[in-house]
Structure formats: C-alpha cells, structure tokens
Amino acid sequence: MDVLWYGSIPSEFHHDPLPIRSHLSIGGTFTPAVFPIGDTVELSAGLSGYYTTRSIVFGTTFWRPFMAFGTSIDMSLYISPSFVGKIGTALLLGMYLPTWELAPIWRLQLAGEYALTEQSQRNRWFVRIPISVDIRSDYISVFAGIGFSCRINRLIAKEQNR
After folding, report:
1. pTM
2. What is the CATH number of the domain that holds 55?
3. pLDDT band at 162, cuts 50/70/90?
4. ∠ at Cα 32 (143, 38), nearest 5°?
5. Which residue segment(s) compose the domain that 117 sits in?
C-alpha cells in the first residue's frame, strides 16, 4: 500500500499556466504470483489499484480525480537480506470521476524496499519508496511516495509445521 504525491505534467493541448498539477494518490498492488530466479532475483505478477484525488485548485481550474485498475509485472533484486530493488511496469485502465470517461495508462516504476522484519519470519514487512511515471495519450505524470508491503512466505510456514 502506497501514499504518493502525484504530479500531472500538462501537454500543450491543455493550455495550463502551471508546469505541473499536484494530486494525492493512494493504492497498491496485490501480488499472488512470485517466481524465483536463482537466489537473488524474482519475477512477480499482480493486480494494481489506485485512487488519485483532484488536483489542487489554481484560479478556477483543477484536474479531475480518477481511479486506475490493471495488471502489473515486477522484477525484484535482493541486494542484501534487508534491501530489495524493484523495477516494474503496469497496464492500467483509468476512470475519471465523475464523468466515468476511460483512459489507458502505462506505468513504469522503480522502488527500493527495506525489510522491517527478519528474513526467517513468515510475514516480512517492508517500508518502500516508489518513484513512477504514468504515460497517457494526452499527458505524462510523475509520482513518488512512501508505502508498506507485507510478504507472506508459505514455504517457511510449512517447514516450521514439520
């Protein structure tokens, strides 16, 4: 789960006097499928969902809020037992509120995660710092924030029950 500052960069089409529009975004990814590749690399696939508020009002203009849902793929590199670097992409379908207008979004993301719990524990908690770019048909957005993730390792639980 992440809480993010979301900055929409207007294109020439928008004729916006501001170089960037600020929003707040909250959301995350559920990742049920993780595929290890060796000891330090994993590929994962999941479902992402985010809600982004309307932009801060400037003059009489603000950008609409939206929800976005879709699929994601990530590659994780375990740099140490406590630190993980991630790179990922997602294909999302954004829905502007209140008009219900749909717009495709391609998201590119980098994230660093630091483990808050020991590697041997069944539930591992991480604090994460994501930095992302959303590419849309009419503008680009950048965002950064902080979040938490939990990884439930079923294999460790099964070994402990033996």
Report:
1. 0.86
2. 2.40.160.20
3. very low
4. 90
5. 2-160
